[in-house]
Hints:
The protein is mainly alpha-helical.
Amino acid sequence: xxxxxxxxxxxxxxxxxxxxxxxxxxxxxxxxxxQPEVAERVGTTVPHLSKLENGHTNxxxxxxxxxxxxxxxxxxxxxxxxxxLEDAPTDE
Length: 92
């Protein structure tokens, strides 16, 4: 039987925050940077960066832009592919 697509449903805000935070942390780790180093590059505090990485807060669009510069990346690279997550095929 062919695979069908799940009906498209919105991810929860917590899923979005957690996935974004994990991608920010992964990029920071890939660069070998500490939270204090990134916080200084971006002009924020370590607690704020920690809350972002742990999925406890959402960044503003402007802050996400600043993060991308501080992480030598692009905003697009930091954002997860939510379409792929929402449209993942099922085995039904």
